[in-house]
Amino acid sequence: xxxxxxxxxxxxxxxxxxxxxxxxxxxxxxxxxxxxxxxxxxxxxxxxxxxxxxxxxxxxxxxxxxxxxxxxxxxxxxxxxxxxxxxxxxxxxxxxxxxxxxxxxxxxxxxxxxxxxxxxxxxxxxxxxxxxxxxxxxxxxxxxxxxxxxxxxxxxxxxxxxxxxxxxxxxxxxxxxxxxx
Length: 181
Known about the structure:
alpha/beta; Dihydrofolate Reductase, subunit A; nine-stranded mixed beta sheet; 4 helices; DHFR-like_dom_sf; Dihydrofolate reductase
């Protein structure tokens, strides 16, 4: 299974405001198109119970949702395409088998605790940044933010900045592919 991460962060590394909600200032049409296209190409979506992709085709995607509400693995009674996974009771590979997806690409879309679990397994991490946006007292996209920058964290886990795409030049939004070397 190929593992790819996706996040958009503010210039100060924040993913959400102090209440845990992604503010509208961090939502950009070009980044949303990039994100949706990536999710369309993925075979499996992985996220925490408070994260969601908010895309028109979200209900159509097979997903694994990390939660402590089950002892190990369970089908989500509210979504037939979702597997509930408690990492304390089952491995990621077990969760993939339960979801019916064991090959292809898994798109890890957060939040910070979920990203941390996969830091040493990412093949590529797509870090979008809105360089003109700051979120005072926000929630960092990775657990070590703000004491370390997103770039420092990714590099410390063996990922190397490889490719930069400008998504919105006027608003200074880009995405960098951090790849395992």
